[in-house]
Design a protein that fits this description.
heterodimer; A: alpha+beta; Alpha-Beta Plaits; two-stranded antiparallel ribbon; two-stranded antiparallel sheet; B: alpha/beta; globular
């Protein structure tokens, strides 16, 4: 799973920067198309829910999703990891 | 299924200000309803007038957006007409404590099987920050520019005295606890009242040195005290800071309830 912030819904209140136990959210720097300074993600692969949701079959932490007043934080499913294959021609 | 499926995504983003806690409380309520596994077709959300009462408009179930202060009266009607429906009421402090105060105490007295979520932001947010019955003593608002001179309403004590079956208070910082309290309230037969202290950075925080949203959340985190600790400090006669928010479950009992599905 992959952590995403919906830029259409976010209003830039920065509550997520305060509640995440891993401090994944950082205050953003530049405004987006709507003029909202959306927080940016700092190494989102550390998120517990991203790593272990599939294994446990339930939402694990989810505090940022519950706290976000604008319903902007969510997880999207990723394609499974495929190791690079190489064909060697003789 | 997650609580995201209960939202009307075509209506989002909502109209609440940046950092308004109403969205958080909406998330917690939907997460609780979702964890209970309620059928969306048999669930009704009722609200009155105010910022908080915009909430049912963003939920993809049947909802009633009723007159000012009368959300509990309408919800009583819904519940008594069909006791098999699950009814949740969203109100604000101006809606519940000021104009709907009488409906509130009588709903608690009748102990109807409702879950009342009060988003208490200590002010009339929608109309421009006028002082409400729950504005704390000394807080600045549009109608009390030198500090509120009246003592505030304690809604939890009111609900306990009037006879509600489950009464709890949390703040919008404590999301998991709010969700669990609402879930307990949904299971309890009879009226369950959950007061959630909500932050209003635009109208309350701007005048009371909590302008930033994170300052408001930090205020909730540092000022709240669990009820067990509060009771212990009172029993020992130790001093308690004056602006403490006592949080926790205040009462859970089994008084005879009305409108419970057979």
């Amino acid at each position: 799973m992959k952590l995403v912030i919906d830029e259409n819904r976010c209003k830039g209140c920065n509550l997520c920067t305060q509640v995440c136990p891993y401090r994944i959210f950082r205050p953003g720097r530049r405004p987006n198309r709507k003029g909202v300074i959306v927080p940016e993600l700092d190494r989102p692969e550390r998120c517990t829910n991203c790593r272990l949701q599939g294994l446990y079959g339930r939402t694990l932490c989810g505090i940022c999703q519950l706290t976000c007043p604008d319903q902007a934080i969510g997880w999207v499913r990723e394609r499974p990891y495929e190791p690079l294959t190489m064909e060697v021609e003789y | 299924m997650s609580f995201d499926d209960w939202l009307r995504t075509d209506r989002l983003p909502h109209i609440w200000c940046s950092g308004c806690s109403n969205g958080t409380i909406l998330n917690c309520t939907l997460a609780a309803v979702d964890a209970e596994g309620w059928d969306p077709d048999r669930t009704v959300f009722v609200s009155g007038i105010g910022c908080s009462s915009r909430a049912p408009g963003y939920i993809a179930t049947d909802s009633l957006h009723t007159t000012h202060g009368r959300a509990l009266a309408f919800a009583t009607g819904v519940k008594l007409a069909d006791p098999s429906l699950n009814v949740v009421v969203f109100t604000g402090d101006g809606d519940l404590a000021a104009i709907g105060g009488n409906h509130f105490i009588h709903a608690c007295r009748r102990n109807i099987d409702l879950t009342v979520v009060c988003m208490n932001n200590l002010i009339y947010g929608m109309t421009g920050g006028q002082g409400s019955p729950t504005t704390p003593l000394g807080a600045l608002s549009t109608t009390s520019p030198y500090g509120s001179s009246e003592p505030a309403f304690d809604l939890v004590a009111l609900a306990v005295a009037a006879g509600a079956n489950h009464v709890a208070r949390w703040t919008a910082y404590h999301v998991r606890e709010v969700q669990k309290a609402i879930q307990t309230g949904l299971r309890t037969p009879g009226l369950s009242f959950i007061e959630v202290r909500a932050g209003c950075p635009t109208n309350y925080g701007r005048k009371n040195r909590l302008r930033e949203v994170t300052d408001m959340a930090e205020h909730f985190r540092t000022r709240s005290m669990v009820k067990a600790k509060f009771d212990r400090l009172v029993a020992e006669g130790r001093p308690i800071p004056p602006d403490t928010i006592v949080v926790g479950e205040f009462v859970r009992r089994a008084l005879p309830a009305m409108g419970v599905a057979p």
